[in-house]
Write a structure and sequence with these properties.
- The protein has 157 residues and is of the alpha+beta class.
- 24% of the residues lie in helices and 39% in strands.
- The protein is elongated and about 55 Å long.
Amino acid sequence: MNMAELKSNQFNLVIISPERKFYNAPVERVTFRTTEGDLGVLKGHIPLTVGLSSGHCKIQIDANTTHIGVIHGGFAEIQPDQVTILVDAAEWPDEIDVERAKRRMRKAEEIISSPTSGDLAIKRARYSMLKQMARIEVSSMKEGSSYRGEFLADEES
């Protein structure tokens, strides 16, 4: 979408994972989890680059339309008229296998509580737990699960 098609209060949001261009369209607001906490971005935000943690990504198209996905790791580059988010993985609620996430969470808990687990194993298990908690939380949300297609990546890539 070119800048002429943006409404006065919108900016372009691009979310890319190694597998796909997850999202590419104008939005009024995006909120996501950084390594320092949640961050909300509106048009005109000061330039900023931040590291990301696993968590929800709330995409507000307009006053009546909001979609929620989950993103894992990476970073976001924020400019006044564009936000580019590069992530390790991104999922819509209908793409999340909740039972698999619960199994992985239990496995991570076992590793963390085991007296024989090394520091690296515990660190990886904690990261896995964060990912699984984010997946489970977002999977229960209804926004974002029914629109996949109209606002996904443009076909001009």
